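User: Predict structure, ligand pyridoxal-5'-phosphate.
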Amino acid sequence: MPGFEVFGEEEKREIMEVLDTGVLFRYEFPEQRKGIYKVRTFEEKFAAYSGAKYGQAVTSGTVALKVALAVLGVGPGDEVITQGFTFVATWEAILDIGAVPVFTEIDETLNMDPADLEKKITDKTRAIIPVHMMGSAARIEEIVAIADRHGIPVIEDTAQAAGAKLNGKGLGSFGRLGTFSFDAVKTMTTGEGGMVITDDEELWRKMSEYHDHGHDHAQNPGGRGGEGRSFIGFNYRMMELQGAIGLAQLAKLDLMIETQKLHKTRLKEAAAGIPGATFRTQLDEEGDNATFFAFLMPDATKAQAVNAVLKAEGCGAIYFADNTWHYYPKWEHLLGGKTLAESGWPFVSHGKRRVVYDKDALPQSAEIMGRCLVFQVPIKMSEERLQEICAALEKAASAV
Ligand SMILES: *Cc1c(COP(=O)(O)O)cnc(C)c1O
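Assistant: Predicted complex:
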């Protein structure tokens, strides 16, 4: 997750262009801004890069999900399906729009299991959000086919997979909408920020209005503030400074991914020597954005034994089974239905608990996560550190 690693002169130059005009707001100030529209340009370039017609920049990846759900008309009483291995933000957005999250199993892609998705669809399902976790594709073509059969729109949570592809097509461009995050630790960063991409002009116009208090950004006789409003919006506007940084980071994205791929290949070769080790299923190895490297042991005991050796060598892997931010059984606040709403909504209605989450509801995911070990793959990895990790993996190979 390396965008911050390559922050440099290019970003500073872009930022200075904005500071020279003094216009930090993405709209208005036509004379003062001297033709500089950083957020708008970033939207156009990012959408084109990702293979979509339109881009809508917003303040975060979490908001990107919320805006996508909003323009699909999702709200209270609806269910939205996502996977039990994702960052909490995915289901926070579902709850924030008033809907209830439903969780599917993952398979060895470490993403949504299409077979389980089919089982979780009900007559209340209004959207499906597969997540391309750790830079690699979910079975998005199968998922979209299932969703189409049921007439349910797909939002791809592509927060961790900017620049990744499946058979040459950008992740995020398969569903009705694709969302991205540019937070401080993502593949490319604007400090805080997000984007929604789509080919659907009407959805894009709705996003544009919704994210800016209902302002209509098409040319209109009333001018900004004088236009009529189609619906009630909110404020999720991105700043020009973020747009400027985004442009500089986007220009570096291909190179970042290429460098990570080289490092990831080295780690993969070293891990291949561990008896019983297999790799996460990748539908398109070439399209991987390579921010993470995941491998699986035959069982949890072996995975922990391998990680004990890695840790002793100062090279411990991430064990997501114990991670409290990304994995369903560890989300105690969700399982307990703890919200700030005194009514308990949406988990409680009229004093009665209406949504109950069982900690053990995803046994297939638990089985997979229990034997999964993950390394983050930085861009600026010294040869020394790379050799250290490879040596630790070799040592682990002879220990199990
Ligand atoms: C980071 C992340 C988000 C949220 O992005 P923010 O910009 O931090 O709000 C959403 N989904 C996933 C899978 C993420 O990793």
